[in-house]
Structures are given as structure tokens and as C-alpha cells.
Predict the structure.
Amino acid sequence: METLTKIIKTDEERLNLIRNLVFDLPKTYDDFLSLDNLQQSRTFSVISAIEELTISKSNFVVKYVLTEDRRPHFLSIEKGNISTTWSKPDEEGTLYCLIGASGSGKTTLGYMTFGKKKEVISTTTRKPRKNEIDGQDYFFVNPRCFAEMYKKGKYAEIDSYNNNYYGIELSEIQDKTKNGDAYAVVTYEGYKQIKKLHPKTKSIFIYSSFRDTRKQMVERGDPYWQISKRLDLYEKDMENKNKCDYVVENHLGKLSDSLEQIQEIVKENK
């Protein structure tokens, strides 16, 4: 989310456009009182920025917020001499750890809820697959580099699968949550490791029925040996269901229902 501070530093003309044209903000105190499109409400969607705008004739300061939909909302009017435009620093967001068996839909739901840019990316010693991009799908490193980073205490959590190592750097979590919520697809053990170093973390267990899970993996083209191996772990994965903060059942063909549940969870933690 682009804050007003960033806009001011990079494009003064754009700031003036926002203030004077797009929202037609008032120039006097009386204009402000008569403006209908500023909603006098303290219930907002995601706040992008807070701005103070001086009304010079009346010496009043108008405070309003720009929200996610880029509309201004009234906060307060105060008498004073503040003449600077400023932005409230974004608060650290919550990290949501999505946990569940392969084929449960957790990766898709994470992307749909938060967006790709808010995914906490893992570092791995695994070789890149076709179409995978370093820095977008994973950070690909060799085993020696991974070991050196581990010795330096860089990782918030580590895991292994198929003779490959996976880890999430603490700095990656801090970077993705510094301006809002983010998500990571991890195991339950990984979540516990992360929680110790990053307390502002919530766990969401996402699962599908055994039948739906198998069908999901078949439809996406997973090789038979991999399907068989992961289904063998299904019951073990389900043991963590009641240990997580939230549980979402993802029925095949009803992804939108699961998405709505996760969105409500995120809203609840605002």
C-alpha cells in the first residue's frame, strides 16, 4: 500500500491531484462541513494514510484518512497551526501460517487472501523446477550456503523433505509484515518455531476430506508416487487440526466459501 509520505517524497504534483481534484477536498472550514462525500465514521477498511490539511482562513486543521478504496473519511477538526502534511507509519501486520496436507488448497487460499507480494518466501536447497523463478517461488541456494545461514541464526524455521532443506529467514518475515499482514505455507512444527521468534503470528489449519485431497492432486497432475506418498501422511497431518488457532474446511468446488472464512479471520484480528 502506497503511503502519503512516499507520495510526497516522490511526486508533489500527484499529492496535489489527490487533494484538490480526485476527492475535491474542501478549502475552507465551511466547505468541509457542507461536503457530503466525506463520511463521518470511524469504521474504515485498510487505512492507507492519515493526512492533516490546514484551513488557513479559519486556522483549523482537518484530519482525514485515505482508505484502501482511496476515498477520504473524516477523523476530526482541530484548531491549531499545524501546516505540514504527514503520514501515519504503517503498523506491523500479523503473519498467518497456513498449515495442512498437500492438496488442501492452502497455497491457493493464501494467494487469494493476501496476494503474491505478501507471501513469505522460503529458502531451499532443492533444484528449481521448470518455470520456477528465484526470489518469487523460492530463494534457491546450495547446501553449503544454507548451512552457513543456519549457523548465523538467519532462519526462523527449518524443515526437510525428500533430502532437501527448507527454511524461512526471520528477515523475510519482518520485511513482509512491516506494512501489513502476510502469510506463509508451513508445517505445524515450522509454525511453532516461527511463533517463538515472531509472536505476532496466527495459525490456520486448512483441510479437505481424504477423497477431495486425492482428487485435487490428481487433477493438478501430480505424479502417482507423489500422491501415494503424501496421502500416506494425511492422517498424521490431521493430528495438528485442533492445535491451530483456526480451522477451515475447504470443500472441493467451494473455494469461495473457504476464502470468505479466512477473510473473516483476518478481519477479526485487525
